[in-house]
Amino acid sequence: MHRSLLLFVFGIFLLLSASAQDMAGKANRFIQLLTKEQQAQTLYPFDTGERYHFSYVPRDDRKGISVNELSDVQRKALFALLTTTLSGETVKKVNDIMQLDLVLKELEHRQDNDHYRDPGKYFVTIFGVPSAHTIWGWRFEGHHVAFNFSADKNELVAGTPGFLGANPAIVLEGPLKDKQVLKAETEQAFDLLRSLSPEELQKTLIAASAPAEIITGASRQAMIAHPAGIRYSELSPAHQQQLLALISLYVHRFTKLFADNMLKDIQKAGMDSLWFTWAGSTEHALGKPCYYRIQGPTLIIEYDNTQNNANHIHTVVRDLKNDFGGDMLLEHYKAAHR
C-alpha cells in the first residue's frame, strides 16, 4: 500500500491551482466515491466545534477518514482536491512528509504491525456542503501536516492554520539519505541571517536559546502579544527583499491566487509593521537549535528546529484575520441558516 500511495501522489503533484469552485467540484467528486459508511465518517456540519481542531502530532483519535481507509481511486480524488488549495510543490512536500513516517518507523525499530508511524494515518474531514454557492470547509491532517481550508461561494477564504514539519529534517542514513523536505525554509532564512549587518543582527537576535516549540502551538487563536526583533523598515533594501522572498516561500505553499491575496493583505496592513525575529544558534548545523518568526498585523510565520538534536523542524503559517475561516465567515454561515 505504501508504495502505491507514493506513486499515485507523485504522479499528480504537478497539477495547477484552481478556484474555490473547482475545489467544490473536486470535493463532491471525492464524496461521491465514498461509501455511505465512509461519508458518515467524513462529513460534518460547518458550525461544529470539531472544525477548530488543529493538531500536528501522531494521534489515534482524529476525526474523518484516513488515507489508509481509501481505495486507490478515492486517494487520487483526495489528492486532486488537495491540488485545488496547495501549490504543486507543497503537495509534493506533503507526500514527502508522509513518507518520513516510514523513516521514523525504521529508526525507532517498530514492528510491521505497529502503526504509530504510518504514512496512511492522514485524515480528511469535510465541513458543510461543498458548492460554489455555500460556505463550507475541509481539513487534511496527520503527523507534521495540518491544513484547514474555508470557502465562501467561489472564494477560498482561508487555508490556515497551515502546518508542515519534518522529522528527520535531514535524513542521515538509508535509501532517503540527505533528503531535506524543508530545505528552502531553512536555507533562505540562514541566507538572510548571514547577510545582515552587525547592527541589523543585534536587533534581530532576541535570545541565545531557541524556544522548544513554535510559540503559537496548536492554539485556536494564534497570539504573540509583543512583536520582537527587527522591523522591516530597519532592514536595508536588499535585506527587505530577502525577507519578502522568505514570506513568499511560505505564502506560496497555497495556490497562486490565494497566495497573492495574502500578500496583498500584508502590503495593505503596512510593510513597516512586519518584524523578523531570531532566537538560538546562528550556525546552520545539526545540534544547533534555532527558531525564527515573521510577524505582522495579518500573519505569523514560525520555524522551530530544536528537537532530536536540532534535526526536527516545525513550521506554521497563521492568518490572523482568517484562521479557520475567521469569525465573520461563521457569522455569515449562521445568518444564512437562521
From TrEMBL:
<feature type="signal peptide">
    <location>
        <begin position="1"/>
        <end position="20"/>
    </location>
</feature>
<dbReference type="Pfam" id="PF12006">
    <property type="entry name" value="DUF3500"/>
</dbReference>
<protein>
    <submittedName>
        <fullName>DUF3500 domain-containing protein</fullName>
    </submittedName>
</protein>
<dbReference type="InterPro" id="IPR021889">
    <property type="entry name" value="DUF3500"/>
</dbReference>
<keyword id="KW-0732">Signal</keyword>
